Structures are given as structure tokens and as C-alpha cells.
Amino acid sequence: MKTGLFYVNECHDGNHERAYAEMLEQIQYAGELGFESVWLAEHHFNEYGSMPSPQVAAAAISQITKKMDIGIGVSILNFDNPVRIAEDYAMVDILSKGRLKFGGGRGYQPHEAKGLGVSMEKTRERYWEYVEIIQGLWANDTFSYEGEFYQFENLKLTPKPLQKRIPFYHACISPASFDLMVEKEVQEFMVTPTLMVMDDVLAYTKRAKERLQQKGINPSVHLNLQMNIADNTDQAIRNVEKEMNVYFNRVLDIIPGAKGTQAPETYERFAEVAKEMEGPVDVGGLNQSGIALLADAKEAVNRLEAAEDAGINSLSCWFRMGGMEHRKVMRAMKRYADEVLPYFKAVQRKQRVGQ
Question: Domains in the chain, start-ordered, CATH in brackets?
């Protein structure tokens, strides 16, 4: 299982210059520590996430790293023109010398859609149409499309990506979305314990992967997970309790169904989660359910091995949550690199020798 970092890059004090500089410093340090990738999430109009254009951040990262993959987890396809998305990320792939791993999602925060003037109706239909357009433009010299939302003839993308095929990960966080992964016969998807506890996420992942393998597809599955490693679980919880409260209190205010609001169609599970998590945030309970990984190194390895056994191929560690102070993030990265990462590096070496 390959390991990287994850950023929504929360910025609660409004100092985005500092937030971006710290993110870039952390990513450079991660490369030195042996992390193999960095994953970036698109968000708008809120301190919850300060990355409205992850392609801009990805281009900057491509120039300060040489080996790390640059993952997008995710670009909200429904919020932009799919042709522009294809163009922007073709440039990122070239600038990174073929290190881009693209990820797409349909978006879920109503205030973002409203601010961009985008409807939250038919988001799944629009998303899959955009997927066809982006992949078609990347793969073909010229491409024509006749869909419900977009139509064009003989469009030539300039420039073309460097990679012959850019990996295309799809956000998959609900039971219905796992069925879609199988129906659409995807080659990559990404999961996170947002709307389900970890045991359910891994069970659905394993089953979806088996169903795809029956169709002759062996998909790559990426896991994103909030985490902290310490001497023991209690210490790990204390290390992040304040920041996780900041994070969850904020996100539970902005998801569909928050504060009793009506969730749009196909977003009902978000409303259920908003209701289930009313009241004080129980960080220990989040850890027990696997929504976060707060543990000593031995338990962390055991839990990540279980994820690997369920079919997870790569992991992004979400260390910087809730506006965590820069030095704390760097310490968390170093501890993981010293105590957990060597195990998975050794496994990778054994697998290469076995080949």
C-alpha cells in the first residue's frame, strides 16, 4: 500500500498566504520522509477548505517535488466546464512529467453549488457525462460528444496529457456509489469513512472489487483517512481532539440536511449523518468506528493491514485537520514516517522481489 498526504487546507484565521506556504513546506518535507503522493481537495467559500482550484496548487507542487505523485481527491466536475477541466489537468500532467492521478466527484455542499450558480439536481447524470468528456478528450486526437448537458464536434485538446492514460479515481462514499463503480466498470475509485463506519467501507470495497474482477477489471482503490500516531490511543486522541472538534463542527454545519434543512435528492444519507452526529463530537467514538485512526504504531499497522486485505491499494494520511498548527503537523508526519511507513515500504520491497 503506497502512502501519501491529503489536504483540504483549512484556513480558519484568513491568512491564506501562511496556509499555502505551510502546505508546500509540509509536502516538501513529506517527500524527504518517504511519502509517495499528495492529494488535494476542491472546496469553495469557506474556511473548511481553501483550495478552490486544486489544479493551481498541483502545478505549484509539480515544481517543488520530483517523485511524488500528485493526486486530486477530488475535482468537483459539476462546478466547471469539463473541457476546461481536461485542459487544466493536461497541463498539470505535463508540468509534473506524468505524475498526475486525477480524481472526480459531484460535490455535496449546498452553499458551494449556490455560490457558483450550479443546480444540485441531476448531479449524478451530469457527473458521468463530464467523465466521458474529460476521458474522451484526453484519449483521442479529436473528440465529439452529444449529451444532455454538453455537445461539441471534432474538438482537439491542446496540449494533450503526457501519460497515455491518466488514472481517474471516482469518489465513492455511500452504498449506492459502490454499485455505480461496478455498473460503470471503473478502473479506480477512492473511499473514506464519511457516511459509513470503516468496517462497512471495507466490506463494500471488497465486494465492489470482487464484482469488478468478475468483469475482468482489477481496480485500484485509494483510502483517505484522518490520523495521528502516538504512544497510545488516549494520547493520540488528546493530540487532535481540539482540531477534530473544529473540523467536525464546521463540516456538520455545511453538509446537506445540516440543522434540519432539506437535503436534495440523492443526498439523503448526508442528512442522516448530520442527525446522527448532533451534539458534542466524540473523538474517541470516531476512532473506535474507524472514521479516524488515532493509535500507537502497532495498532495503526494492524488496522491498515485490514484495509489492505479488503483491497485498498493506496492511502492518503490526513494529518492537517481543523487548522492544526504547522509544527504539530510536521511532528505527526515524522512520527508516522518513523514508526508506520517503514512496515509498508518493506512489504512493497518484498512484493517487488516476489515479482
Answer: 2-354 (3.20.20.30)
